[in-house]
Every structure is written in C-alpha cells, then in structure tokens.
Design a protein that fits this description.
Elements (H helix, E strand, L loop, with lengths): L1 E3 L6 H11 L3 E8 L8 E3 L6 H4 L7 E3 L6 H12 L2 E8 L2 E4 L8 H11 L1
Antiparallel strand pairs: 1-4, 2-3, 2-5, 5-6
Length: 117
C-alpha cells in the first residue's frame, strides 16, 4: 500500500490516509528548532502543504505496507521527501511515540494500539 505524495497535498490529508489504513496509529510531521534535538522539534500544522516542507524530490509515494517496520516508514519520509515524521500508537486516551518499538511492523503497532484502547 502506498501513500501518494504531491506538493499540493496537505499534511492533514497524508495523516488522514495513514489513519484510514491504521486506525490505532497516527503520523506527525515535524521541523527542527534550534539544535535539532528531538526535544527541539515542532509539529507542522495539518493545513501545511507537502510542497512547503519537503526538501527532497526523490519520490512521489511512500510505502506503508502493514509488514514494514515503523523505522523504515519514518526513514522513507526523510530520504524521499526530506521530511521528519514520527509514528504514534494509541494507548487508552493517549498517544505514545513508538521510539522503543520502532522495529515492530505497522501491523503489530496497530494491533497493540487496538488492544490498549
């Protein structure tokens, strides 16, 4: 399964497509502030177009096959578009970053989110 990426597509549209495929996961887009450390990242608003934030033109699709690992998908967005993303999993009424479980597949992350909700 692929998400089509175009310069006029909004961050919110990409998020909506991702969420349709994985209802217990969400994808957030970030830009670095200051030193560029993880705690210095700012969320990009959902109305922002991909063309406004992309720094690479290496692809027009990102593969979000359920068998792919979270770290692969996050890396693809960076390598293909030059955009930093992080995937979060639903945990009750909260969203938790999947940093410690980035080696899990999207399918497994989504299943865990479903079990925790």
């Amino acid at each position: 399964m692929n998400i089509e990426i175009s310069n006029d597509k909004s961050v919110g549209e990409v998020q909506k497509e991702f969420r349709a495929a994985f209802p217990f996961l969400k994808i957030e887009f970030f830009k670095k502030n200051g030193a560029g450390l993880r705690n210095h990242m700012q969320t990009i608003p959902d109305k922002t177009t991909i063309g406004m934030i992309r720094s690479a033109q290496n692809a027009d699709t990102v593969d979000i096959d359920p068998a792919r690992r979270v770290e692969e998908v996050e890396d693809d967005f960076f390598k293909k578009l030059g955009v930093m993303v992080r995937i979060f999993r639903k945990a009750g009424n909260m969203w938790i970053e999947t940093t410690l479980t980035d080696s899990w597949s999207l399918r497994r992350q989504n299943h865990e989110g479903e079990q925790m909700s």
